[in-house]
Request: fold
Amino acid sequence: MRQSHRWLGIVLTLTIAANFVAMALGPPPVIIDYAQLPPLSLLILSGLYMFFQPRPGNFRHRSGHSGSIRVSGSFCCGNGTK
Reply:
């Protein structure tokens, strides 16, 4: 699923580039104007599908865990100096 999502992104990018090239040469045909809609629609649907899929191993059980995060150093510079 992720691989097809990536390829849809490439196809969408190519259709947008083709639209810009066609616009530079004059008024583009209607088919070029609307060529982005099918890959965009499929990209949105596949992205939503992947977003709502649970990913096992990503969620941790909180039993025995305080939930606090330890951070060393400074938030500013990352090397402990301010």
